[in-house]
Design a protein that fits this description.
Blueprint lengths: L15 H27 L6 H26 L16 H20 L8 H11 L4 H26 L3 H79 L1 H27 L6 H14 L3 E6 L9 H21 L4 E9 L2 E8 L16 H10 L3 E7 L2 E9 L6 H7 L1
Parallel strand pairs: 1-2
Antiparallel strand pairs: 2-3, 3-5, 4-5
Helix pairs in contact: 1-2, 1-6, 2-3, 2-4, 3-4, 4-5, 4-6, 5-6, 6-7, 6-9, 8-9, 9-10, 9-11
Length: 412
C-alpha cells in the first residue's frame, strides 16, 4: 500500500492509500454484515411476508445511509483536539438511517429473532457516535447497550423465551459493532494526527534553521559593526593629532566593511565556515586596536586535532567573547587560552573591567545562551562567570564532536 505525497479530497495530505484502505474496510465490513447477514433473514421464505417487506425497506435505508455517513466521516481530517473528532453528520441521512434501522430492528424483534434484531440499530448508533467527542461517544454506546438489553429482556419475558440469551446477545452485539467500527476509525484518526504532526515537525525544522541563520547573521553583522564603530571613533580622535594613523584606521574600516559584506554573502549562500584560528588572530588585532593588552596562550601542536565543525563552534564562541569584551567592559587586559586536554578542546577567554555580565544577545537568543545550546548538542558545554570586575567565558568540546553529521550541519 503506497501513500501518495499529496491527497485531494481524501483527508490529510499523504494518506491517500490509508484513506482508501480505511474506507473499504470500514464501509465494506458494515455493508457486508448488513446485506449478507440481515439480508439473508429478510429474504428467508420462512419469515412472514408482513415482516419481510418492511424489513427490506429498513435494510435498504440503513445500508445506504450508513455508507454515506461513514464515507463522510472518513473524509473529515482529524481536527486534532481530543474532544473534537469530526463534524456534524448530514441530518437527513442520519434521520433516514435511524428510521430504517428502527423499522428493521422492530420487525426482527417482533418475530423474536434475538440474534439479528439489534444489528441494524447498533450500526446506526455507532455511525452517529463517530461524529461525537470521545466522552459523549462512550455515553451513547453505553446507553445503547443498556437499551438493547432491556428491550430484548422485555420481549423475552412477555413471550416466555430465554431471558439470559435475549438480554445478553443484543447487548453484546451493540458493543461488538461499536468496538469494530470505532476501532478502525480510531486508526484513521491517529494516522491523521501523526501526519499533521509530521507536517508541523517539518515546519519547525525550517523555523529552527531560520533562527540559526539569523543568529549567525547577527553575530557577523554585530561583530563587524562593533569593530567598525570602534575604529571610526579612534580615527575621529586621531584625525588632527595623527592624520597618518587616522588614515590607516579608516583603511581598516573600509577593509572591515568589505569583509562584512563578503561574510554576509557567504552566509546567505550557505558555505561560510568560521575558523577558530582566524577568530583568535582577529581578536588579537581588534583588542590591540582598542588599547587592550591581549595575552594569547595557544598550543600549536594540538591546534589541528579538532575537526572543522568543532573549530567552527569554538570560532563562534571566540567571536562572541571578543564582542562582549568590546561592548560590555572597560577592559585593559584580556587573556585567551586554547588547548586540548583529555580528549577535549578547551577555550577560555577572560577580561577585566567588566561592570556586569553581558545582556545583549544572552536574552535574545543570539548570543552565549544560543552557543551554549549548540555546544551542548555537540557533547560539550559553555559557561560564563562574572566575579568582581572580571568576566570569564569557558568552552569545552570533545574532539570527536566535529566528526558527526550533525555538527557539520550546524557549522553551516
Amino acid at each position: 500500500m503506497r501513500d501518495a505525497p499529496n491527497d485531494q479530497g481524501a483527508g490529510p495530505a499523504g494518506l491517500t492509500g490509508f484513506h482508501r484502505y480505511t474506507w473499504w474496510s470500514l464501509i465494506g465490513t458494515t455493508e457486508f454484515f448488513l446485506v449478507f447477514l440481515v439480508g439473508e433473514w429478510v429474504l428467508d421464505e420462512d419469515v412472514a411476508a408482513w415482516a419481510r417487506i418492511p424489513g427490506a425497506v429498513g435494510l435498504a435505508a440503513t445500508a445506504v445511509a450508513s455508507a454515506v455517513l461513514l464515507s463522510r466521516r472518513v473524509a473529515i481530517a482529524p481536527a486534532g483536539a481530543p474532544d473534537s473528532m469530526g463534524d456534524r453528520p448530514p441530518v437527513a441521512w442520519l434521520t433516514a438511517g435511524s428510521v430504517g434501522a428502527a423499522l428493521l430492528g422492530g420487525v426482527a424483534l417482533a418475530v423474536r429473532n434475538y440474534e439479528l434484531w439489534s444489528y441494524a440499530p447498533a450500526t446506526m448508533v455507532t455511525v452517529a457516535a463517530t461524529f461525537l467527542s470521545p466522552r459523549r461517544r462512550r455515553e451513547l454506546i453505553a446507553g445503547a447497550v443498556a437499551v438493547a438489553a432491556v428491550l430484548g429482556g422485555a420481549v423475552a419475558l412477555a413471550s416466555g423465551d430465554g431471558l439470559v440469551h435475549a438480554t445478553a446477545f443484543p447487548a453484546v452485539m451493540v458493543a461488538s459493532v461499536a468496538w469494530i467500527t470505532l476501532g478502525m476509525l480510531w486508526g484513521w484518526d491517529v494516522a491523521g494526527r501523526l501526519n499533521r504532526a509530521r507536517g508541523l515537525a517539518a515546519e519547525l525544522a525550517v523555523k529552527d534553521e531560520r533562527l540559526r541563520f539569523a543568529a549567525d547573521l547577527h553575530d557577523i553583522q554585530g561583530h563587524h559593526l562593533q569593530v567598525i564603530a570602534l575604529k571610526g571613533e579612534l580615527a575621529a580622535r586621531l584625525v588632527e593629532a595623527d592624520p597618518a594613523r587616522a588614515a590607516a584606521e579608516m583603511k581598516d574600516v573600509q577593509r572591515l566593511a568589505t569583509d562584512a559584506l563578503t561574510d554576509t554573502r557567504a552566509v546567505v549562500q550557505g558555505y561560510r565556515r568560521t575558523s577558530l584560528d582566524a577568530e583568535i588572530a582577529n581578536a588579537a588585532r581588534v583588542l590591540a586596536a582598542a588599547d587592550i593588552d591581549a595575552q594569547l596562550h595557544i598550543e600549536p601542536a594540538d591546534a589541528d586535532r579538532l575537526p572543522t565543525a568543532g573549530r567552527h563552534l569554538l570560532g563562534l564562541v571566540m567571536r562572541e567573547a571578543t564582542t562582549n569584551v568590546l561592548r560590555h567592559s572597560q577592559a585593559r587586559r584580556a587573556e585567551v587560552d586554547y588547548r586540548l586536554t583529555n580528549g577535549f578542546a578547551r577555550l577560555r577567554v577572560s577580561n577585566d573591567g567588566a561592570a556586569g555580565p553581558p545582556r545583549s544577545g544572552m536574552d535574545t537568543g543570539t548570543g552565549l545562551r544560543t552557543l551554549a545550546e549548540r555546544l551542548e548538542a555537540a557533547g560539550g558545554d559553555l559557561t560564563w562567570e562574572h566575579e568582581e570586575d572580571s568576566f570569564v567565558v569557558a568552552a569545552a568540546l570533545p574532539v570527536k564532536a566535529g566528526t558527526d553529521g550533525h555538527s557539520e550541519g550546524e557549522a553551516g
